[in-house]
Each structure stands twice: as C-alpha cells, then as structure tokens.
Amino acid sequence: MDRWAGKVAVVTGASSGIGAAIVKSLANAGMVVVGLARRVERVEALRNGLKDQAIRKRLHAVKCDVSKEEDILRAFRWIEEKLGGVDVLVNNAGVLRDVKLVAPGNTGDLREVIDTNVMGLILCSREAFQSMKKRSVDGHIVHINSVVGHYIPNLPVLSIYPASKYAVTALTETMRREFLAEGTKIKVTSISPGVVKTDMVPNEMQKDQDLPMLEAEDVAAAVVYAVGTPPRVQIHELTIRPVGENF
C-alpha cells in the first residue's frame, strides 16, 4: 500500500458496517479517505472516535445519497476542488428490501434497490474514472459485490437484491473492457463476500446461532489486499466465505 500513501480514496456507504471498516482500513494504510453517506453524522462520529490525530485529519465525511445523481455530482465536485481528485473508489453502498417481486405497490422499494446498488455504482464509477483519466492516474475501482451476485440461494427475503448483484458482476467485466478501450491502466475489482455480520442481514438470519458469518473487517482486509497488489496485477473477482457456510 506504500504507493497509495497520501492518495485519495472514496468509499460509498461509509456510515456503518463494511463501509466503516473499509474507511478505517484505508485511512490506517495512509490514504486520504472520503466517506460518502446519507447519515454523514455517523462518518463524522467514526472520525472523531479515532485515537490517532494524523489519521483523523485524513478522513473526510461528505453527505451523499448515491441513489441521487445530483448528490453524486456534488460530492465528486467537492473532492476535486478540495482534494484534487479520486485515486481509488470503493463502491460499497447497498440496500436490501424484503418485498416480493409480485407484491402490489412495491415499485418504490424495488427502484430504491436498483437506483442504489446498480445506478449509484455506475454513476460513482463514471465520475471516478473521469477524474482518474483526466489526471492520468492508474487508479482502482472496487465493487463490493456478493456471493448472491453469482448464484441465488433459496431465501425469498432477498427479493431483487441478487438481481442487482448479478448486475454488478456483469458491470465489473464491462468496465474492465471499457477501461482498456480507453487506453488506461485503471483496475476494477469485484469482491463477493458471503454473509457478513451487519445491519443488512435479515433478522431471521441474525438470530441463527449456527450460521457462520464474516466480520466487516474481513471484507475491508480484502479491499486493502486487492488495492495493494502491484500495478501488473488485477484481482478481477475475489470471493470470501465464512468457514462452514453451507448454502
């Protein structure tokens, strides 16, 4: 990670869970980190809770709902004006809504998942890519995907969520090809964890004492690993499962 010291990393969905763990890991690794979140006060609290003053100074909290393009554009303008641009982007923001696809009146919930998990990821990646290309930076974009972006378990509570993550799997390869076609060496990585112990996990799964789960820090460590690989190495897909997972 030495080559990223002092460089700018942007993490979406930074207020809790996996996002908060990634923010701390990248800041500890020496990067200047911008945490984007709807609940920006949580990112501020995370920063204020850090013991190392130097790390606190490297962490910035910016309010941004990635389901809203105007929020994304405003956030990336702020980053360019205040910090010079983006070197690493981690698309972590995501939502899950327990609503059946065929249920009446479900349009708002379904659209929220797609707007956040798919369109938000695309638009943030677009803005980060343009920032990297303009400055001739061989940057890195990381998508926090999921194992359900590769297969669909028999869990009706997931609803449209697997479809949104399958889209992330496809988008990762599409972006890789577009980055190459643009003549850049910008990397893109999809990280697909199994069940992670966060607020997003449905209540019935959280109550299952026999269900193996990853910690948010496990995913953060995978991000640091992928970003820290030599320039010649691109981790295209990294799958992480807790030991003992059987679905």
Automatic annotation (TrEMBL):
Keyword Oxidoreductase: yes
Matches recorded under InterPro entries: NAD(P)-bd_dom_sf, Sc_DH/Rdtase_CS, SDR_fam
Alphabetized PROSITE patterns for the sequence: ADH_SHORT
Protein name: 3-oxoacyl-[acyl-carrier-protein] reductase 1
PANTHER family: DEHYDROGENASE/REDUCTASE SDR FAMILY MEMBER 11, DEHYDROGENASE_REDUCTASE SDR FAMILY MEMBER 11
Family according to the record: Belongs to the short-chain dehydrogenases/reductases (SDR) family.
Species name: Culex quinquefasciatus
Organism ancestry: Eukaryota, Metazoa, Ecdysozoa, Arthropoda, Hexapoda
Entry-linked Pfam families: adh_short (PF00106)
UniProt keyword list: Oxidoreductase
